[in-house]
């Protein structure tokens, strides 16, 4: 049984696609850009949006930052609460805490939004820390995870695991030598899973709970 579990937020603990997609649509419209073909959840939910705006949409760094500013206009007030915890997540976190497993959130979402979401949807009482970048920040997933691990002191091999739904979770965890549980109920897809090879997969929250609690 793992002592420390680092969770991604979007697509792992919460179903956040509605607020993110609507807020990206708003940002594109404000920029005078078409939304057609640009709102697929596999593309925009999970990865850092500045990266998506530059690498997928082909925007210049300046245009990407302006688009992100428009995204934040809507997301910071409305979009972040167009969201819900996946069924079974809060009871699973509660059971983990009761079993002595320490849970954390490591997200690419700005930390201020992640904190508000975890409080709103009942996750906050069961996680010890929530780490994410500043608004507009460029921290990688590995950077965020590293901050959590640094607060734990020496972590023995096999004591910690990352749980996520996108390649960035796998890449970041493996960079730090952590195993990864990839949740296929999230926003990734089979091609991404095969390409980046997580250590374990969980198709449902029930499967994830079984892996983490060995029950």
Strand-helix topology:
Elements: E1 4-7, H1 17-30, H2 41-44, H3 49-56, H4 61-75, H5 89-98, E2 102-106, H6 111-120, E3 129-131, H7 141-150, E4 160-164, H8 167-175, E5 180-183, H9 190-196, E6 200-202, H10 205-213
Parallel strand pairs: 1-2, 1-4, 2-3, 4-5, 5-6
Detailed description of the structure:
This protein has ten helices and six strands. With 215 residues, the chain is α/β, with parallel strands linked by helices. It is 45% helix and 11% strand. The model has no long low-confidence stretch (mean pLDDT 95). It has helices spanning 17-30, 41-44, 49-56, 61-75, 89-98, 111-120, 141-150, 167-175, 190-196, 205-213, and strands at residues 4-7, 102-106, 129-131, 160-164, 180-183, 200-202. A six-stranded parallel sheet has the order 3-2-1-4-5-6, with helices on both faces. The chain starts with a strand and ends with a helix.
Can you tell me the residue ranges where pLDDT is under 50 for at least 5 consecutive residues?
none
**How much helicity do the residues have?**
40-55%
Number of helices: 10
Radius of gyration: 17 Å
What is the ordering of alpha helices and beta strands?
A: EHHHHHEHEHEHEHEH
In spatial order, strands of the major sheet run 3-2-1-4-5-6
Coarse shape: globular
Mean pLDDT: 95
**Helix-strand category:** alpha/beta
Major sheet: 6 strands, parallel
Count the beta strands: 6
Estimate the strand proportion. Answer: 5-15%
Measure the end-to-end span.
10 Å
